[in-house]
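WARN no homologs supplied; continuing
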Amino acid sequence: MNTSTCTRPNKKLFEHTILPTLYILVFVVGLILNVWGMKSLLHNWKKLWSINVLVLNLGLADMLYLLTLPFLIVYYLQGNKWIFGEGFCKVTRFCFNLNLYGSIGFLTCISVYRYLAVVHPTRLMGKLTTTHSVVISAIVWILVSVQSLPDMFYPKTYPNGSKCFDTTSNEHFESYLDYTIAWTIFGFCIPFVTIVGCYGHVTVVICRSNMMKKDQKRQILKLMALLILLFSLCYAPYHIFKNLSLYSRVLRKQGTCPQWDSGVFIARQVSRGLVSLHNALNPLVYLCLYEEMVSQFRQLLRGGHQIFSHRLKSKSSSVPVPQAEQEVEMIYDSK
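OK structure emitted
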């Protein structure tokens, strides 16, 4: 079958409407939650010893990507017209890779720390210091940078600079497929197997333990479930459908139009949106680590609900504006 007969869904609907809308949501929510989470992290710095260093680096990885989102939002809203130059296009995609695989790396390290703290508490005591966490964080950043660096050498724009590919141009995607497969194995599959192995053993130990309180068990199990959910929802679909999409491009270049091409195309676009959500979901790790943040989050929601209710009541009863504002101030003062 000739590639000209391949029919594909409407790409503009995804890249010109859905994707930029999702990026705007992720930028706003992710920025607020990460700043709030890192502030709480610094406030509770001494409570969870060296694991704080890993959580801090997780937040820095998220912020690195969030700061590039406004440029991608402009790019997609303008109909895939990149106006910031090829060099900055490569920097933007490089920051995405640093964020993605840096997040996976630090989530994996947090999982290993949790495993050691639960399964081998006596061996761990006094041996994992803040210095060790700093060294481990530096190693993660170095490995992720080395892993992401080859992507910088693939073309990311057309000669006229009108595009900013998240993969590469049609002339190089066959070799790029080999690169992404290796990338998937070392950057995603090995960390995923590590996390599942650690948490599988931790679950068994927790269920059998009579020394831990129910609250401690619940907190650890919540963190485990959250990290597995992050990998399953955000990371797994992205890697699967990215590789399938590149393989589909190889087949189309050879004159074959696979029956699953349209389905993979839609799934690929959805997975691009899902993988960006991890920047807004990662701050939930803070909530699992700090019960204080959970109570603060509930108070924030409760306060917002009360303010909204008072404003509705003031409008329905025709309360003058100054009096309504005074009521809102009283609500804040009572917190």
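The mean pLDDT is 79.
OK
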